[in-house]
Amino acid sequence: MAVATLDGETDFDGWRKAARAFRLAGVEPAAARFVVAGTMEQGGLFDQPIAEEASPTPDERRAFNVPKEFVDLAQNLILHRSADRFDLMYRLLWRLKDEPDLIKVISDRDVADALERVKNVSRASHKMKAFVRFRQVHDDLGEAWVAWFEPPHRVLEKTAPFFQRRFTTMRWSILTPDGSAVWDGEALRFGRPATRDLAPAEDEIEDFWKTYYASTFNPARLKVKTMQGEMAKSYWKNLPEAALIPELVVASSVRTETMVATPSPQPNSRFARAVAPDVHLARPDAEAVPQNLDDVASGVQACRRCPLYRDATQGVCGEGPKSARLMIVGEQPGDQEDLAGRAFIGPAGQVLNAALAEAGIDRSDVYVTNAVKHFKHEPRGKRRLHKTPNAGEVQACRWWLDSERRLIKPQVVLALGATASLALLGRKPAVMQERGAPIDLSDGSTAVLTVHPSYLLRLPDEAAKSEARRLFIEDLTAVQRRMR
Ligand code: URA
């Protein structure tokens, strides 16, 4: 038996190195063993460490490259809590040499088994994003947030960067039986396993949360099976609101009847602000119509109408005077807006500001907002690349844009680009053809469409850019005249 000792349960680099050496030395899967340092399994009496002479020749090295799909799969598979996952990974690696396309054969038993386990890992990571509950603590440096969480698979390191992006400006720790993640505002560190008693169990915010959950729990939408599927019982013990569920389920039929006649409660914005660090809180209360811009702001932070909140740092609402006669609607916050929580402050914002100034419009008189309030993006190395929101996301977010329009009552709404136009008109117009022409909206205001400023930034040719900019300013100037 050839044995490799790994530094930890999720030591992928250690596994990769050892597995490669095993493979090149011809160690059959049945004869390969991977053990984790410090566990009971380590150091069996008859185990042989892999011989040094297993070092591959350069030719062998070249001949044995694994596809990227396998590396991606194995990096997630190692997070599965099953004891035999290392063996499955090695079996796949072993077979890849003769079956280079193996990973694509989803009917293969090993591949199917691996994919199923990876699916469970990914589900565990997703649930962690949804069900981690932070509690407030105070230390010498001030306020901090601590959560205890028990993931079914070892997804702490995979999922912690999500919380880092989400709660960049706070200090927080997530404690789990596998290890802990600590964000101090500057660096994310991983430390030792923890026990539940290290995390606070109750605090003031928890009481707020319970009250809020009970008041927004919508009995008419209650589907016990769906709810249990989403929020499996194993998670309940760490969710403060879960204690209320049995009681609320019993009470739900009575509440459904009374609810029909009773107007739904307004969102508790004080609560929504107070509990902002809690990622799963505040389900949108579809019936609670925002009464002012503070309600919109707190509602957007708590919004779960579409999945975009999951990867955004925060929701970004509009900004400007409540009495603004002009509202400008962009697409969605970009990278800088997502971090700062303010619309149009990045490169597209600079283009917009300059063009507004040339058209004689003072930005501080304008209410500037976006069709979609959370930043949709995908990682590319260290960068977060913008992704256009889809029609479903635009539709979900119309609740907030419509609320802003109802509260501000602008005379003119200027839509920048196709997404904003879709949000305003409910159809995707040909912006280039319809730009500049006033369109009556049902609330009595007028929509005007034009291009998005980032379109100007993207044009590669200086002459085309300058012409596009001239037309953009012309559209803005026409809007300015209309406002007089
Ligand atoms: N692009 C937008 O549409 N909105 C912003 O806030 C920034 C860039």
TrEMBL record:
Domain Uracil-DNA glycosylase-like, by residue range, is 317-477
Write down a Pfam family by its short name.
DUF4130
User: MF terms per GO, please?
Assistant: 4 iron, 4 sulfur cluster binding; deaminated base DNA N-glycosylase activity; metal ion binding
Q: Which GO terms describe its biological process?
A: DNA repair
**Keyword 4Fe-4S appears in the UniProt entry:** yes
Keywords annotated in UniProt: 4Fe-4S, DNA damage, DNA repair, Hydrolase, Iron, Iron-sulfur, Metal-binding
SMART domains linked to this entry: UDG, UreE_C
Q: Where are the transmembrane segments?
A: none
> What does the similarity note say?
Belongs to the uracil-DNA glycosylase (UDG) superfamily. Type 4 (UDGa) family.
Could you tell me what this protein is called? Type-4 uracil-DNA glycosylase
